[in-house]
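Handout for the seminar on molecular recognition.
Each group receives one record of this type.
Step one: identify the two inputs.
Step two: read the structure output and locate the region that could contact flavin-adenine dinucleotide.
Step three: write two sentences on what you found, then compare them with the reference statements printed after the record.
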Amino acid sequence: MHEWLIIGGGVHGTAIANKLLKATDTRLQDICMIDPHKAPIQRWIDRTAATGMQYLRSPGEHSLDVGSTALYKYAREKMGGKELFYSDFNRPALRLFNAHGAALIDEQHIAETLVSGTATSIKRISGGYAVDLDLIDGASTSKASIAARRVVIATGESHLDIPEWAQGATNVVHLFDKQKLECALAATPQQIAVIGGGISAAQCATRLARQYPGSVSLIHKTSFRIHQFDTDRCWVRGNCLEKLKAETDYSKREKIVDKARLYGSFPVDVRDALNTAILNESVCCRQDAVVAARSSASNGIELQLESGERQHFDLVILATGFTRGFANDVFISSAIADLGLPCTATNMPITDKYLRWSQDLFVSGRLAELTAGPFARNIFGAQACMDRIMRSLRPTRFKPRELQYYHYAKKRG
Ligand SMILES: Cc1cc2nc3c(=O)[nH]c(=O)nc-3n(C[C@H](O)[C@H](O)[C@H](O)COP(=O)(O)OP(=O)(O)OC[C@H]3O[C@@H](n4cnc5c(N)ncnc54)[C@H](O)[C@@H]3O)c2cc1C
């Protein structure tokens, strides 16, 4: 039986494994990580590459490693190059963040803990849990079960938001559906529509404009919102968290967290890059909503817009993000049913302050939002969630350490 089983080897799962190895007496053989990808943080690498982003949105204090100086130290000692951080907030270059992540995974041998598979269900056994999974071995799959004393669920956001008009349509792909997107772009489409008004849509349109100048239209429903971060920083400083903690009705907490997320927003540099592409006539931008689509395999797709206009494209890329909640998540739904776990109507976990969903069963990332706040899903959230989980092992006086990770930002005012 493993000491720790981490379900999901993404940004959160990897940061948790690293912290266990560095900050506790946990040994490599005590940890098992389940993920369908071939390597840790692969989904992060794929999704960020799809957007074409050059710099992260979050500051350099937030990384996969413990403490707030790790990324700066790595940049100074190992990369030494210029343009590794951007703007007053020291936002790290994606290539720096990924190189640091790869070095960390290598140094701590985290990939050795990875079992390639998808968790399908979880049950209590004497002394811990048994997780059933579909093991992936090349093109074939088989069933297996892994037992552990403690389990952390860090499965991130898996369910892509596909608007009703796009369901079943051909020549429509989601930005984060890697294989389909690569395949669609390989067919060199002449006219491409990107649908969405957030950071990924803006970055994707700007990226494609370089590759297909004059062929890209960005269709966004609402006006662009310019914000440095995707949530107000009061959530990191703690004062907003206090208000969340005071709310005992979890469906209300869900609304508070949802409202706090600045959906459909992006920082100034992303807007500037998009504006340049618009001025160069590489991208055409239009505020309108798609209400219907008619596609044919041979003749692209026609979008019917709310304004009454119809536009024809060869390819439509949805940068519409993810569905809210976990009602569609098979593993989460079965865990709730089998273990009788408390949750909201959208399957959001109701946990204690240590992110304990049940005895020795923890959550991290988006699943932790109703307790750790809207930043829980971000890179910062990986450290904040792990701090809480570790406190459960030695429950002294509880004091979330979110503040520590923001001391640089606070210094800057
Ligand atoms: C394009 C993009 C850019 C972003 N930029 C930033 C940024 O600059 N700063 C910031 O702070 N945040 C950013 N975020 C938000 C957040 O940091 C990332 O989404 C991050 O990857 C979340 O980490 P995670 O581990 O929760 O989820 P993921 O990285 O998605 O990892 C979850 C893993 O769990 C696996 N999994 C899912 N279900 C199962 C299952 N049943 N069994 C086994 N494994 C499973 C998945 O395959 C995946 O590998 C960004 C997000 C996106 C999409």
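Reference statements: The radius of gyration is 22 Å. DSSP finds 14 helices and 19 strands in the chain.
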